[in-house]
């Protein structure tokens, strides 16, 4: 039973219980999908993904998403394990050493910058290109990547990851058109509220920002479980004409200038009525 029954999915990026991909994987399984998990070798060694795989009977395969040989081996093996073409893919992958080392935007290290872009954005292109060449994704399949609103608005401290997200959303549109015409494959980005995860925690301002967006979002921040629900909907046949979009799962934050909660915070801090 479930809206993903008979569907086969490939999930990149679950590291530990806080990971957005972890929540997505569990929700997809609840909805009846059969899954293969993947992450880079070091994350498999250091993270908890092996536990997710073993406890839920999800095969786990290593793949560095910057490496096209890894990707093509992964896609072949995943189809073998799933017993057919892949119906949906979650790309939940990002990393910035510039961000981790708190280098300011004007002083970022260019080697790290290239790596940020490669891991966090070009990897989606590599996965899609390889999948297209080998026809690994079923006709009408669905691919979702996770983005953040700093792709389009300046956000202090988010550094080169903002550039990566802007490119990522552009790849969603461009490859969405190409893959859509070729094989009817849908490609969308979910622009998620700040969420307390390993990658999220690398950003120095995360704790303050999380509280700020909670106050500035009419519906409050979207949780990792909320993100999983949106991904499940996008993977399902209920959204089969939705493609090339950035979908905001952010409680309305991106459309809001001021809320009563923010005014209340100012009243408290200034003492003015
Ligand atoms: N946490 C947030 O606030 C937030 C908000 C919006 C969007 N996102 C995005 O969601 C996605 C998932 O991040 P998360 O917050 O769940 O954090 P996370 O740290 O749990 O996930 C990031 C994943 O990327 C993987 N990864 C890094 N380099 C890789 C490589 N070379 N090959 C394969 N995998 C690699 C990591 O091992 C990890 O599993 C990211 O794209 C992130 O930017 C996060």
Question: What small-molecule ligands were found?
Answer: nicotinamide-adenine-dinucleotide
The description of the largest β-sheet is: 7 strands, parallel
> How many individual β-strands?
7
Task: Show unreliable segments.
Answer: none
Structure description:
The chain has a single domain (8-199, 220-251), classed as 3-Layer(aba) Sandwich (Rossmann fold). It is 48% helix and 15% strand. It is built from eleven helices and seven strands. It has helices at 20-30, 41-46, 49-56, 68-82, 97-100, 110-134, 160-183, 198-202, 206-216, 224-235, 260-270; strands at residues 8-12, 34-39, 60-62, 86-91, 137-147, 186-192, 246-249. A seven-stranded parallel beta sheet has the order 3-2-1-4-5-6-7, with helices on both faces. The model has no long low-confidence stretch (mean pLDDT 96). It binds nicotinamide-adenine-dinucleotide. Residues 13, 15, 19-21, 39-40, 43, 64-66, 92-95, 119, 146-148, 192, 194-195, 197-200 line the site of nicotinamide-adenine-dinucleotide.
Write the layout of secondary structure elements.
Layout: E1 8-12, H1 20-30, E2 34-39, H2 41-46, H3 49-56, E3 60-62, H4 68-82, E4 86-91, H5 97-100, H6 110-134, E5 137-147, H7 160-183, E6 186-192, H8 198-202, H9 206-216, H10 224-235, E7 246-249, H11 260-270
Parallel strand pairs: 1-2, 1-4, 2-3, 4-5, 5-6, 6-7
Bound molecules: nicotinamide-adenine-dinucleotide.
Short synopsis of the structure:
With 273 residues, this protein is of the alpha/beta class. The chain has a single domain, classed as NAD(P)-binding Rossmann-like Domain (Rossmann fold), CATH 3.40.50. It is 48% helix and 15% strand.
């Amino acid at each position: 039973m479930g809206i993903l029954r008979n569907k086969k999915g490939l999930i990149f990026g679950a590291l530990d219980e806080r990971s957005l991909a972890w929540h997505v994987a569990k929700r997809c399984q609840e909805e009846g999908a059969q899954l293969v998990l993947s992450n880079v070798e070091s994350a498999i060694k250091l993270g908890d993904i092996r536990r997710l795989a073993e406890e839920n009977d999800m095969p786990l395969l290593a793949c560095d998403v910057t490496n096209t040989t890894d990707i093509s081996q992964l896609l072949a093996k995943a189809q073998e394990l799933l017993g057919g073409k892949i119906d949906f893919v979650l790309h939940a992958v990002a990393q910035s050493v510039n961000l981790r080392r708190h280098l300011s935007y004007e002083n970022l290290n260019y080697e790290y910058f290239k790596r940020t872009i490669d891991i966090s954005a070009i990897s989606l292109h590599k996965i899609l290109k390889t999948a297209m060449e080998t026809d690994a994704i079923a006709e009408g399949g669905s691919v979702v990547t996770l983005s953040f609103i700093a792709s389009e608005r300046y956000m202090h401290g988010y550094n080169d990851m903002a550039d990566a997200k802007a490119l990522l959303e552009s790849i969603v549109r461009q490859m969405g058109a190409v893959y859509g015409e070729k094989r009817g494959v849908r490609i969308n980005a979910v622009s998620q509220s700040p969420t307390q995860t390993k990658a999220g925690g690398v950003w120095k301002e995360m704790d303050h920002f999380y509280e700020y967006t909670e106050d500035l979002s009419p519906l409050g921040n979207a949780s990792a479980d909320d993100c999983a629900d949106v991904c499940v909907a996008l993977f399902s046949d209920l959204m089969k004409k939705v493609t090339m979009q950035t979908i905001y799962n952010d409680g309305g934050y991106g459309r809001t200038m001021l809320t009563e909660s923010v005014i209340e915070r100012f009243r408290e801090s200034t003492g003015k009525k």
